[in-house]
Design a protein that fits this description.
Elements lengths: L3 E4 L2 E4 L6 E3 L4 E2 H10 L1 H8 L5 E4 L9 E3 L12 E4 L6 E4 L4 H8 L3 E5 L9 E11 L5 H17 L5 E4 L5 E11 H18 L4 E2 L11 E4 L9 E2 L15 E2 L1 H5 L14 H8 L17
Parallel strand pairs: 13-14
Antiparallel strand pairs: 1-2, 3-4, 5-6, 5-9, 7-8, 9-15, 10-12, 10-14, 11-12, 11-16
Organism: Streptomyces physcomitrii
GO molecular function, one term: ligase activity
Protein name: ATP-dependent DNA ligase
Length: 293
């Protein structure tokens, strides 16, 4: 029998809560739902008013994965959605605006991915993102070196950057900006990636070409494009363990000498939130947003 729970006045059917999703940690679907509920105060702020794309992995990271932008079949009528233009025509996507919607989404077993723009301003970005992806044998340690250079470079343009782990191998840098067309943000971000490659030869590449990747950090600027999304802060990832895309301090970035130092699991996040609050809260402060040069 599928248990029914009530969240903020909404009745939700939560299924297969004892199912093990992350075998390496014997982490169950019920724990997935509990994790998302426990970090809802911070996660919802990053999801709010941004059309969500779901990377679903209902049978665990080793099972089938599928990326869904359209509203999933069976979505309750009370869940808010937004019409989003796509190259093949408009689609409706979920807006995760409240705890009930978050718990419903968590029951699907998902990573949350969001664009750099909000639902009422398609293609007008209010943040810039740089995805630092290490090619083996490089790790997040090398990403931290690149992140520190990029932080200073952005600061030279008056832009304040913040860091989070990708929840996989690398780092994401995020910066609040004044609303700017996504194409302009992408162009600026590409310029930064090229500069980083020139300043840190042998360590950085701005090109995705696989033969250039080993031992280097790929500075992916493309996620600023209107059609692209990035893993949302605090989302679980479909990895062997319940790893999380976790905000980190610049002190942690500067002190990173071991990749394990910047690897965070679901159980690590509530204590970090209690100790630090949401390290990415400045992204929501309009006084921190700066124009692109």
């Amino acid at each position: 029998m599928t248990p029914i729970t009530e969240v903020e006045g909404r009745r939700l059917a939560l299924s297969n809560l004892d199912k093990v999703i992350y075998p390496a940690r014997h982490f169950t679907k019920g724990e997935v739902v509990h994790y998302y509920a426990s970090v809802a105060g911070s996660l919802l702020a990053h999801l709010y008013n941004r059309p969500v794309s779901f990377l679903r992995f209902p049978d665990g990271p080793e099972g089938q994965r599928f990326f869904a932008k359209n509203v999933p079949p069976g979505t309750p009528s009370w869940i808010r959605t937004a019409e989003v233009p796509h190259s093949d025509g408009p689609a409706r996507q979920v807006l995760v605006q409240d705890l009930a919607t978050l718990v419903w989404s968590a029951n699907l077993v998902t990573e949350f991915h969001t664009p750099q723009w909000q639902a009422d301003a398609h293609g007008i970005a209010d943040r810039l993102v740089l995805d630092l992806d290490p090619g083996a044998p490089a790790t997040v340690v090398e990403c931290c070196e690149v992140a520190l250079w990029l932080r200073e470079r952005l600061a030279a343009d008056g832009i304040e950057a913040f860091a989070k782990t990708s929840g996989a191998k690398g780092l994401h840098l995020l910066a609040p900006i004044e609303p700017t067309p996504s194409g302009e943000v992408t162009g600026y971000a590409k310029g930064l990636a090229v500069e980083a490659e020139q300043a840190l030869p042998g360590l950085v590449t701005h090109r995705m070409t696989k033969s250039l990747r080993p031992g280097r950090v790929f500075v992916d600027f493309s996620q600023n494009a209107a059609a692209k999304t990035t893993a949302t802060p605090y989302t679980l990832r479909a990895r062997t363990e319940p790893s999380v895309s976790a905000p980190v301090t610049w002190e942690e970035v500067a002190d990173c000498r071991d990749a394990a130092r910047l690897h965070f699991l679901a159980d690590d996040i509530p204590p970090r939130l209690q100790a630090h609050g949401d390290l990415l809260a400045p992204l929501f402060n309009p006084n921190r947003a700066r124009p692109l040069p």
